[in-house]
Amino acid sequence: MDVHTVTAAAESFTCNAYLVPGERTTMVDVGTYHDVINAIRDHVETIDAVVLTHQHGDHVDRLSAVSGTFGPEIYAFADHPLRTRTIVDGDEVLIGDETFEVVHTPGHADDHVSFVSDETLFSGDVVVHDDGAFDDGSFGRTDLPGQSRETLVESIETLLDRMPDSVEHMYAGHGGEFHGDVRAIVERALERAARHEPKYPDK
Fold this sequence. Notes:
By secondary structure, the protein is α/β, with parallel strands linked by helices. It has one domain: Metallo-beta-lactamase, Chain A. Helices cover 22% and strands 23% of the residues. The protein has five helices and 14 strands. The protein has helices at 36-41, 57-60, 63-70, 149-162, 182-193; strands at residues 4-5, 18-20, 26-28, 49-51, 73-76, 85-86, 92-95, 98-104, 113-116, 120-124, 127-128, 138-139, 169-172, 178-179. One of its GO terms (molecular function) is hydrolase activity. Keywords: Hydrolase, Metal-binding, Zinc. InterPro entries: MBL_Glyoxalase_II (IPR051453), Metallo-B-lactamas (IPR001279), RibonucZ/Hydroxyglut_hydro (IPR036866). Pfam families: Lactamase_B (PF00753). This is MBL fold metallo-hydrolase.
């Protein structure tokens, strides 16, 4: 799978927005990067779909621009004015050339979903490889209103149950991508999240 982080040049805070060319050229989240349209056009002329892991502002800010420019189908778990396809837990979606299962993974956000194929995980903010709090397995923050560490822990457990052992590529909403033993990364994230200690104790 060919994956491009089209928000890599952003200087302001944004999620990682991923462009996945293929049979169904797809964006996973869109981020806040003001020049994301040109970043997309550096690789492809158009996109067929956008799939959203969740609707926090750093993941959907440029959705209107992307939708207005390319006219893609927009897949989201929760309601959104631009949504054209509703996704629910257990659905399958084609991202690039791979078929992914939708796994509802709330805790960081009620509408959070992850996308899992035989080889690849788009984990959004439920699990990340590195984020300044931990390396080699961290997890989304749960200290803001409407978030829940207990629910996040349950979601990571669900993700491990539903994720094949063959997954070796992980693309998270923040931090670096990871290639290797993804299950070990997710298990470390679960262990750390389950301690119920503050993620950023000095903040």
